[in-house]
Amino acid sequence: MKLNKIYIIGVSKCFSANISLEQSILKISHIDSIFARKEDEYILKKIKHEHNIIKSSQIFYGSKIQFILDYITENITKKNILVLADGDPNFFGIAGTIFNNTDEKFRRYIEIFPAASYMQKGFASIGISMSDSEIISLHGRNVSNLFKALYTSKNIGIYTDKINNPFQIYKILMEKGFSGYYKFHVLSELCSKNEKTLSLNIKTEQNSNKINIQKALEEFEDTKNIVILEHVINKKNNVGENCNNGGADSCGNCNNKSRTANNNTGNNIIHTGFHTDADISTDANDSINGGAAAVADAGVKIIADADVNANANVNANVNVNVSVNILGINDDDFIHGKGEPTKKEIRAAALSMLELKRNSVVLDAGCGSGSVSIEAAAVASEGMIYSIDKNKIKINNLLKNIKKFKRPNIEAMLGDMPAIFNYLKDKFAAEHIQPDSIFVGGGGISIDDIIQTSFEMLKSGGIIVVNCVMIDTLNKVMSYIENNKSKIRYEIISLNISRLESISYSSYFKALNQVYLIKIIRTK
């Protein structure tokens, strides 16, 4: 007896002959139920005309995903079910959702027949190889997926949505220092009569040109589109590197020339996160980002980098390779104020004690100009760094350093520590986030409250590292440890660093300030 199955078939408007559909239809004896979009009705009419398999099928158009999942769960092995999907349904498509929702013992009843995807069509249209590209989806997903991809220095293909739209993606690249690194392609309504392509060289524009670019990109907000970021720096540096020994003729693209490339309110917190900017939000009531209204209720004013003059005098560094040092950056390479940054020997010890992983969520409390954040962001390249300071000038310098060192996964936050920690505590609870590591580089008289709130946010097994110079701070931290020994483990190191200094006739070791690093591990 032939088993009933779930057939997930990709269809593509980009080709008149849907080969995957034609091949799969020949394998199916009959279909009981069909899930399709209304726009695919013409395909079903064609099948009905040429085959007998769907003449008595029940057809569901435009069903919600949960209804499809519930229906499949209830009828798997009982009915032959056909699901029509765009392009390759197993690549950021419905097939993965169905697989994940299906008990493992029933997954063998699912068959997938992919078609060419819009992303494949997009790369082909602008003449870029997909072989060494990162493909990501921001459709209903967190923008941090883009940050991870930017660390790869590859071409990037992006599925967008109404919130993470082309202008937002462009804005991220500009704010995070990637001006000059990518050619920016937007491909809209592919394979339709409304198909449109826009290509931009991302460079540091004058204000008038920025406004024109914003207007051009905002035209794509309400259309189906993909964005392709073509990495022009790598292309210039690596022409022919994959040609083996066969010369240009053995490598299809080796002869190609490189392509040219806001005020304090409420809790005294200013949030410099770009992805929910009130002035460019696509929907103030949107459920994904909470919208401007939700932010205002939290007493947080959202601003852009320009509001703290973060764009000044940073563009000279635009041609620095993205693969700058991860650790051990020279102190003077940071843009910083007097008494900063945290010295690189101290940073090395502190980052070691934080035990960072690639996907760690990290808080840098009292971040200053951000030297710890900058190095932590490269180690936790698939995670997120929340950098906090109450000094506007220091946050200004942090934003400049984010651009200089190309660290997209840092979110800068300006505000008083206890208040901003309470805000973050609520934010993390709502988003089901728990920090893995918290570095406390400042705090003063509020250090007790900061450590307590840090502990409450921290996941079990998470780590707090406190950097102490003042004896009063050390005593307060030790007092906290003494009162909480039942739920923590801890270790303390004292660092006495001296650097060799030369004078006219000799050399000597110049001592830096003695520093105590206290590591607190949450055990309960």
TrEMBL record:
This is Precorrin-6Y C5,15-methyltransferase (Decarboxylating) subunit CbiT. Transmembrane segments: none annotated. Pathway: Cofactor biosynthesis; adenosylcobalamin biosynthesis. Keywords: Cobalamin biosynthesis, Methyltransferase, S-adenosyl-L-methionine, Transferase. InterPro entries: 4pyrrol_Mease (IPR000878), 4pyrrol_Methylase_sf (IPR035996), 4pyrrole_Mease_sub1 (IPR014777), CbiE (IPR012818), Cbl_synth_MTase_CbiT (IPR014008), Cobalamin_biosynth_MTase (IPR050714), Methyltranfer_dom (IPR025714), SAM-dependent_MTases_sf (IPR029063). The keyword Cell wall biogenesis/degradation does not apply. CDD domains: AdoMet_MTases (cd02440), Precorrin-6Y-MT (cd11644). Residues 357-469 form the Methyltransferase domain. It comes from the Bacteria. GO terms for biological process: cobalamin biosynthetic process; methylation. The keyword Cell cycle does not apply. GO terms for molecular function: protein methyltransferase activity. Pfam families: Methyltransf_31, TP_methylase. NCBIfam families: CbiE (TIGR02467), CbiT (TIGR02469). PANTHER family: COBALT-PRECORRIN-6B C(15)-METHYLTRANSFERASE (DECARBOXYLATING) (PTHR43182), COBALT-PRECORRIN-7 C(5)-METHYLTRANSFERASE (PTHR43182:SF1). Residues 63-202 form the Tetrapyrrole methylase domain.
